[in-house]
Amino acid sequence: MDRRPGLSARLKLTLSYAGFLAVAGALLLAVVWGYLLRYVPDNPQGLLGVSPNRYLLVRTFLPAAAWAMAFLLVFGLVGGWLLAGRMLAPLTQIRDAARRAGEGSLSHRIRMKGRQDEFRELSDAFDSMLQRLESHVAEQRRFAANASHELRTPLAISRALLDVAREDPTRDRDELVERLQAVNTRAIDLTEALLLLSRGDTGTFTRESVDLSLLAEEAAETLLPLAEQRRITLDVTGGAARTSGSAELLLRMVTNLVQNAVVHNVPTGGTVTVRTGAEGAMSVLRVENTGRRLPPDLVPTLTEPFRRGTERVRTDDEHPGVGLGLAIVQSVVRAHDGSLHLTPRPAGGLLVTVRLPGAP
Predict the structure, then answer these.
(1) Which residues contact 97 (CB under 8 A, 6 or more apart)?
(2) What is the rounded CA–CA span in Å between residue 330 and residue 336?
(3) Predicted structure pTM score
């Protein structure tokens, strides 16, 4: 932003210090003038004929007062300049760090030494911001690289199938068309998931009153054929859990959780339990499923984009997914000012708890 040149903060503080000191000195001299010289007699003989009169004291006092005021002004300017420089030194470090961050160096940290004060608090807050920003940029770069790779795969497969059809006219076209349709469907699903993830991250949606219990029932009804195919018991219980947000995004969140719970389960005879309810001022959704035990170090990574959780058990490969299920869930929860907790069950499987601000 273009700004007109002005006085620096250091010069402003210096002039303020010097002006304050000059005003204090002038007031002190005025007090001396008003309360001391008024008691000196104004006659040629002075007091008792031996002390000087007011005229002589004024002629003696005024030059000394002028020299004192000049000294106070110079002392205020020099001292104020030095003090202002010392006080503003931490801001110089923060300014340099901000400029380096603006140039793309997010790994730099101020780490200002000294006891806690306003400048140290500002420095620590700036370091924390840089750390979060660096982590976010790294995450976005990984996401862009993974998304490019995921989108490149179906396009490469489509090109290979088209090359085969062009080079071998006798090949079964129905088989090629079916495979192309499957590849394009996967590419479309991936693109829609990316758009939904972007929409959740930006938080651009209209809020309305939504009942998580109704969304859970709708998601369970939609996925019931999938659960029956895998011989998995799907149970939805609980009471009303109202929150404020996008019904479309929240339905996608619940659907992703239930679908993950069904797909990542034991081969047969598993269970998926969905519970909703209100706890204080929060609306809570819990999705719990059976399955193999999950390593503790794997659970925190499940919400990363394109993390498919290869350690988790899948019953088949009909729903390979795109690795964005829990990433979308986390994005939607964050956009609705909620929290997401993943807890591995001791007997195997996963317990997912979503807490969202309640609504009347």
Answers:
(1) 108, 109, 110, 126, 130
(2) 10
(3) 0.57
